[in-house]
């Protein structure tokens, strides 16, 4: 997706002091190496879960993949300045809601902030599916709320029911000044990977239904809630699109069947997400008050 957004919404963050273009297509560009990266060591960050610590999980020597940054073709995104970010967001609450994609973004942001202000007092709390890191000196809280579908998944007498037109966790979202949502690939799961037994719309229950249609109904429920409950003058809302497919790409290696042992990225063209799951998200988000970020990164 390609949407133009104003720089004031994203913030002119950066230590180089160069202004971002007032109107820029952030989603056309390429991955380039920046030797100033990475901005933090995952092994030294207290918010890194074992499952997400690549260095400790067998990739200790190869650090080059951590140096890639996204560079738009038509403008400059300044380097991330964590201390400036803390000062600009003083007193604010930032919440990521979704699956592991949102978790990765939450972990990346909290680790960058922790690394930039190692002597700042902080608290780290977990409660059910809500993770909160608060930097007390700045009054900044960064939260992650796990919710793979954004709508309700409940246990009932008949089994696990995914209620496409029901959303009960919204009150938690209301406390945030910045909201970043994502949902996509969990809707496509089948067999043992599927986390629900039935769909429900209104009073009707379905054992199976078209996944694209289910996704569209669920995302429309989320968008309707956002439109009715969030004031865009007070709260910024972002929707994080699905990551581009990267299991196999001839740009990596003509003989490769997957990304195993591939260490470099070449070029800017990669196969996008399946249209069967991405198109409804684009259509719904464009109708509502949210920025659609296919390349949103706190990096």
Automatic annotation (TrEMBL):
<protein>
    <recommendedName>
        <fullName>Trichome birefringence-like N-terminal domain-containing protein</fullName>
    </recommendedName>
</protein>
<dbReference type="GO" id="GO:0016020">
    <property type="term" value="C:membrane"/>
</dbReference>
<keyword id="KW-0735">Signal-anchor</keyword>
<dbReference type="Pfam" id="PF13839">
    <property type="entry name" value="PC-Esterase"/>
</dbReference>
<keyword id="KW-0812">Transmembrane</keyword>
<comment type="similarity">
    <text>Belongs to the PC-esterase family. TBL subfamily.</text>
</comment>
<dbReference type="InterPro" id="IPR026057">
    <property type="entry name" value="TBL_C"/>
</dbReference>
<keyword id="KW-1133">Transmembrane helix</keyword>
<keyword id="KW-0472">Membrane</keyword>
<feature type="domain" description="Trichome birefringence-like N-terminal">
    <location>
        <begin position="23"/>
        <end position="75"/>
    </location>
</feature>
<dbReference type="GO" id="GO:0005794">
    <property type="term" value="C:Golgi apparatus"/>
</dbReference>
<dbReference type="InterPro" id="IPR025846">
    <property type="entry name" value="TBL_N"/>
</dbReference>
<dbReference type="InterPro" id="IPR029962">
    <property type="entry name" value="TBL"/>
</dbReference>
<dbReference type="GO" id="GO:0016413">
    <property type="term" value="F:O-acetyltransferase activity"/>
</dbReference>
<dbReference type="Pfam" id="PF14416">
    <property type="entry name" value="PMR5N"/>
</dbReference>
<feature type="domain" description="Trichome birefringence-like C-terminal">
    <location>
        <begin position="77"/>
        <end position="268"/>
    </location>
</feature>
């Amino acid at each position: 997706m390609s949407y133009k957004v104003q720089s004031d919404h994203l913030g002119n963050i950066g230590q180089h002091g160069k202004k971002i273009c007032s109107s820029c297509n952030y989603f056309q560009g390429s991955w380039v190496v920046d030797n100033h990266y990475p901005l933090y060591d995952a092994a030294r960050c207290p918010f890194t879960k074992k499952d997400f610590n690549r260095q400790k999980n067998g990739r200790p020597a190869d650090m080059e993949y951590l140096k890639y940054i996204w560079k738009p073709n038509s403008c400059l995104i300044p380097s991330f300045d964590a201390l400036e970010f803390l000062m600009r967001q003083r007193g604010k609450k930032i919440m990521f809601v979704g699956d592991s994609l949102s978790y990765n973004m939450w972990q990346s942001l909290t680790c960058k902030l922790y690394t930039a202000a190692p002597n700042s007092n902080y608290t780290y709390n977990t409660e059910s599916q809500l993770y909160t890191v608060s930097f007390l000196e700045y009054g900044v809280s960064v939260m992650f709320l796990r919710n793979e579908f954004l709508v309700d998944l409940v246990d009932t007498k008949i089994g696990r029911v995914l209620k496409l037109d029901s959303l009960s966790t919204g009150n938690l979202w209301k406390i945030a000044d910045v909201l970043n949502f994502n949902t996509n690939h969990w809707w496509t799961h089948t067999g043992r990977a599927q986390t629900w037994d039935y769909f429900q719309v209104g009073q009707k229950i379905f054992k199976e239904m078209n996944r694209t249609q289910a996704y569209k109904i669920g995302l429309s429920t989320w968008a309707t809630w956002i439109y009715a409950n969030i004031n865009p003058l007070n709260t910024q809302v972002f929707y994080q699109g699905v990551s581009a497919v990267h299991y196999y790409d001839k740009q990596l290696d003509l003989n490769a069947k997957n990304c195993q042992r591939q260490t470099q990225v070449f070029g800017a063209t990669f196969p996008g997400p399946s249209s069967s799951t991405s198109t409804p998200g684009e259509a719904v988000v464009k109708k509502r008050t949210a920025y659609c970020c296919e390349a949103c990164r706190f990096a």
